[in-house]
Amino acid sequence: MPGGWSIAVEMTFYLFCPLCFTLLGTPKRVAAATVLCVWFSHYFYGTVPQFLRSHLFPAVQVDGAFLHWAHFWFPTQAAVFLLGFCIFHLLNNPQVRRLAKDRLWAWTILAACILALCGFLPGQTHFTPIDFWVVVALGGVIVSISGGAIPILVTKPLRYVGVLSYSCYLVHFAALGVVLRVLQIRLSGDEPGKDFGSPGANLAYFAALCGLTLAVTVIVAAFTHRLVEKPGIEVGRRIARRLNRRSP
Question: In terms of pTM, does the model score above 0.90?
Answer without folding.
Answer: no
